[in-house]
Fold:
Amino acid sequence: MRHLITIATASTIAATCAIVAACNTSTPPATTEQAAAVPAPAVSCDSLASLALPNGTITGTEAIEAGAFVPPMPPGRSLSEGQARQYGALPAFCRVAATLTPSSDSDIKVEVWMPAEGWNGKLQAVGNGAFTGSLRYGGGRSMASGLERGYATASTDTGHVGGGAEFGYEHPEKVVDFGWRSVHEMTVTARQVIGAYYGDGPQYSYWFGCSAGGRQAMKEAQRFPEDYDGIIAGAPGNDWMGRAAGSLRVAKHLEANEDARLSDEEVQLVHTAVLDACDAADGVTDRVVGDPERCDFDPAVLQCSGAGGDGCLTAAQVHTVQMMYSSPENPKTGRAITGVLPGSETNWTNLGWTRSARGTGLDQYRYLVYADPEWTIDRFDFATDIVAAEETDDDTLNALDPNLQPFFDRGGKLLAYHGWSDAQISPANATQYYQRVLETVGDEATVRDGFRLFMAPGMGHCGGGEGPNAFDALTVMEQWVEQGQAPDRIVASRTRDGAVDRTRPLCPYPQLAVYTGTGSTDDAENFVCQMP
Structure:
């Protein structure tokens, strides 16, 4: 049955299980006994149209039959084979759309999907990416992947449409919505809608996001410790201002000095030298740097004795590599703005960090820091602009508050993961934050009971790379929250030519996976987690 068919339009995320933590098929479906224990919906889906919300209105309800969901698509585009397969396998569900207006300038679109039967009694909300203003319907870490596992699930467009930061130009309330308010308001709304539909709210609530979704995760733990029982923060972009400044600092230099850029062949030269210096430190030669923070590599060893040539770098190019690795300090606060790490070279671009890092960085300064649409990268000055960015932001987008004690006090669990080879968000940002939480809380046992960080050697941004990078973070989190099984290791896998060819444990930071010396080095069972 359909009612008020004004469901919010949003872009569709490509369906894929190749991303880290995206494959949810490892968790078996609920047994008959479990399904029978879950109450059936207390009301019809269309009756939710009259539900009164404290900060918004229901704009659409729709009872979707099994396999019948088709997301809004741009003109001329159709579903990919993977998207069609994922949506076609979805169970019947109640789809509710709402517009939330916590401020006079807010226009936050939210959707809540709820299984028509077999609900597992839980909520899984999903995060966004970059400045993207759209609901995350499909792919990994999406509403579809949550629904597949029996969850009621929720997503928000964060209060705007589009992939840039233009929405925030002269609209401070929309910046607050993007920074943190939209996610909290979505969470409150989702719980109300779920409670109205089933007659009771979720027993457990989980957040699952990567990149900007990881930043949202950290913001929730810091600002709203009561919202979620378990929070999964992948590649968290919690130092949003630092990433913007770090990427623009290198890009400005390379735009102005073309002779300092590295070709693909020269980037590979650096990467090979890094592997020669640091690959075997963990007892295994596998083309992956297991501990980049302790990789003692000096790019100056590649400097040509003359003007340049095959197998060496010019002095200007060596300086570029050093810039990529360096972590200059905010001159006002003294906090290091972390660079990328040795082993990440194959993810570099000819202007340094990834294109997305530069694009979001430019938007950050152009629309949100200086409110000048004509601002260009050649005007960037690290010493003054990082200070201006952090002062202007005033803890709106940055998620750097290390005091997680309130989250720990209510029993919350935070599982963060980051690829050591990420060149879009520095992995050193994650380890720096973890250390600051330890220092602030002051008790390692308390922190370990509620916060564990897993660094993935060879993994890029949110997935991919030479190292094992696929793992089921949601099942790990469920076991931690619901059964008290804190993760002492997470087994990750790597797939080549459609088959898993390597598994390796990810260890809670600062532990490392070390080869025992016997058995296959492609088998996680032959590695132990231990302190460096």
User: Anything to note?
Assistant: Confidence is low (pLDDT under 50) at residues 1-36. The radius of gyration is 23 Å. The first strand starts at residue 2 and ends at 3. The first helix runs from residue 32 to 37.
